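User: Protein zwilch, Meloidogyne javanica:
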Amino acid sequence: SRIVLTDRIHELRYLAGLIAHLREGTSPWAKEKVVEQPEIIARLKQLINEANSDSQSVYPFDFTDKLWDVLKLSKSFDTLRQSFQLLYDQLQTGEFRVLVGANRTSSLAKMLRMQNPNDIVFPRLEMMTCLQLLVEIGVDRFNGELVYRFLQGQYLPNSSDLDPFFLPSMASLESTIERLLPLHFALQSMIMIEGYVRLPKHEIANLAKRLLTHFITSKGTDAFEKEFVYKANMEDIQREEI
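Assistant: Predicted structure for Protein zwilch:
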């Protein structure tokens, strides 16, 4: 398929499913199934060790983003609980210092920013708490990635250009994920158009904003049905890409 970033759509749908379970107070994991996942705990320990080194980087993805990439593979509550307990143990030492992006708003990001472990309120690791902690870092990861890709692709000059299209930080997780889908489609469309059409530099930011405005008028999954028509001159089409 020539359609880009389709894996992110699958992951957004997975995240939306977790949020639905959180809203309903139900488990996303089969209760009768005990799944041992020592590889996830091993990957988490490796991530913690790397984060403790001097070589860690916050850009484009910080510690919580990398944590999502590991913990999204959890297939049981027990794996998730063990993972967060491991993080709690690290935080309680007062010596665990990791870089967290300034725009990350999850509960874990807030804990990781605190210098004194005595100031941290550690919620009990019950199922819905673990699910909430996981979902929050997933939403942060997607928010951060969207900003990064729009800027890296030079579709918009500043991250503040995206602010009008994101929901405020106090919005519900469900509303936030509903907004992330159309924002992602706008990014996907921008990459596809730029791949096939030579765009004048002054036109790129205007087109990006048109796409963002176009897709956010859809609600949630309605964005899947929304079309965007871009009329290009024949001489601007990059025939070698077709």
